[in-house]
Amino acid sequence: MNDIIKLNIGIAGCGTMGLPMLEVLLKNKIKAIGYDIRPKDNFPTLKDKFISSKAEFFDKSDIILSAVRDIDQTLELCEGHNGLFKLNSPKTIIICSTLSPAFLKKFFLQSPDNITMIEAPMSGAPMRAKNASLTFMVGSKASEFEKILPILNILGDKIYHIGEFGSGMSVKVLNNFVASCSVVAVRHVLSEAKNLNITTNQLIKILNSSSGKTWYSENLENIDWAKENYETDNTIAILEKDVRSFLDGLADSNSSSNDAMVNFQNALLDGLKNIPTFPNN
Predict the structure, then answer these.
(1) Using CA atoms, how far apart are residues 117 and 114, in angstroms rounded to an integer?
(2) What is the DSSP letter of 274?
(3) 206 and 142 share a domain?
(4) Which residues contact 17 (CB under 8 A, 6 or more apart)?
(5) Could you tell me if 158 and 135 are in contact, meaning their C-beta atoms sit under 8 angstroms apart?
(6) Count of domains in the chain?
(7) Domain that includes residue 146, residue range
(8) Do residue 267 and residue 186 come from a single domain?
(9) 3-state DSSP helix/strand/coil % of the chain, to nearest 5
């Protein structure tokens, strides 16, 4: 194990993923702190481990794991007032959010020489962040991967080095497209089951014991957002953002999706924004 676990680790973005990640690090006696755009009184359990000032947070962090929501928050973190890119000291930032591969490629080229940028998008939802069983898909140099591996091993149990920078986010948005399809599909058939004289519990039982089983259907009672409707600030909206990240990546590639697949992609976006209400029966 290398010396990274002796360094100061900062979690930027103490939301539904970042907060439990920080709590896991602290539980494992790692010198870790958190920062968020929301005020300190939103995080009473963190006490002095929450830093309200972005400048102070960066000053006290050697390695920053970014778990902010989207591109805008990533840009604000790094290029905004007192942003990471304005520092002169060497820092490492690990991008754990799901972002557009096309954006990330350009963002990487804009980073200053004193900033080491690694991508390690995560999967597993808050339930797996809390029990330290996240999956990380890392895009970096092999030496950089080996350096950060001890920290990722504390936070997750499946750590994959996909390849060079960019490859981790590419595989993540491909994965999230499939996951989003399964969420819409399961919610759709659950909403229609009653019309075929099948109860919700009957359908879930059959789905999870046959070919219709998905990660979402199997964890309906464990995923905290599983029964949400679409709201602009909730996880269903994050799935929409992730699908758009996938499509943005395709637009920047040599993709030649046929009309049927383009229609399917657009239908998925519409399905997320109009996802059926989870049935009560």
Answers:
(1) 10
(2) T
(3) no
(4) 67, 96, 122, 126, 129
(5) yes
(6) 2
(7) 3-164
(8) yes
(9) 50, 15, 35
